[in-house]
Specification:
Rossmann fold, alpha/beta, globular, 43% helix, single chain
Length: 141
């Protein structure tokens, strides 16, 4: 699983959802969590010059946000060598986003339907971790 020092970014326009997600991370032992209100703020943070110590290592973003939606944020991150492999978990209000979801699931990304349970949240993090590990093992062989 991800190190307890992993630096997470939560991007969601709904403050209650940010709090729920932060608590879910905290319950798993993750305390290095940053929050922003939309995809534009997330992109600005992820693209700003920073030291390695301050880099975001995992993004959790709502699919629908003002100014820049989750899939657009993800697509922008895919364009840069320095951000394309940041693990990404999309949060969605339901299956009405199925047209997005199949294209957004990769070794480094997945989605979770809200409201989620602690168990389903942990399972998604583990799935992303395992996909990344398997992908790296396949590339090494």
């Amino acid at each position: 699983m991800f190190s307890y020092n992993t630096r997470f970014l939560i991007a969601d326009d709904f403050i209650t959802m940010r709090k729920v997600t932060r608590k879910a991370l905290g319950d798993l032992g993750y305390t290095n969590v940053h929050e922003v209100e939309d995809g534009q703020q997330a992109l600005a943070l992820l693209q700003s010059p920073k030291t390695t110590k301050e880099e975001i290592q995992f993004v959790i973003a709502d699919i629908h946000m003002p100014r820049l939606e989750g899939p657009e944020l993800w697509a922008n991150l895919q364009k840069s060598q320095s951000t394309k492999n940041i693990p990404f978990l999309f949060l969605t209000a339901g299956d009405d986003n199925s047209f997005y979801l199949k294209d957004l699931k990769t070794d480094y990304s997945d989605y979770l339907v809200k409201p989620f349970t602690q168990k389903s949240f942990k399972t998604k993090l583990e799935c992303i971790w395992n996909s990344i590990a398997n992908s790296k093992n396949l590339k090494a062989s």
